[in-house]
Amino acid sequence: MNFADYHALLSLYADYTSVVDNGDWDRWPEFFTDDCVYRVQPRENHERGLPLATLSLESKGMLKDRIYGIRETLFHDPYYQRHIVGTPLIRAADDDRIVAEANYAVLRTKPDQMTEVFNVGRYLDTVVRTPEGLRFASRVCVFDSEMIPNSLIYPI
């Protein structure tokens, strides 16, 4: 993998983090291919090969439905989230595809409370080249705890 490709991957991760931290929900699905997979799964299920996930979306259309739900149908206490994402480790790369993983921590702040650690785990990503640049074909967020507080509203 050359430096330009690695820089493009770092930019993809940084831009993604900025969009989800700032709640720019219209832009979130654009980080993915049309036939993408986005899954948030507990570590225990992932390691055992069990398919049950806290959230499982299997197309860009499903991601857009999730955004509609965030805006129009889900009722929850408002909160902010802030991601801290480690440097991606490249597991495999060729001319068309990059397989990478990175650790993440998501902090959550409700306006009237102290900041808390909301979710910690690792991203398992398959990134592909498209005419628009690098996009996630698959993003599996494997979280370490068997529990998450309340419900999962915003993307990880």
Automatic annotation (TrEMBL):
Q: Which residues form the SnoaL-like domain?
A: 4-139
Origin: domain of life: Bacteria
The answer on whether this UniProt entry bears the keyword Oxidoreductase reads yes
User: What range does the record give for the signal peptide?
Assistant: none
Which key words are in the record? Oxidoreductase
- Name the InterPro entries for this protein: NTF2-like_dom_sf, Rng_hydr_dOase-bsu, SnoaL-like
> Entry's Gene3D superfamilies?
3.10.450.50
Please verify whether the record's keywords include Oxidoreductase.
yes
Which is one GO molecular function term here?
Answer: oxidoreductase activity
CDD domains noted in UniProt: ring_hydroxylating_dioxygenases_beta
The text of the family note is: Belongs to the bacterial ring-hydroxylating dioxygenase beta subunit family.
This chain's protein is named Salicylate hydroxylase
Gene source species: Cupriavidus lacunae
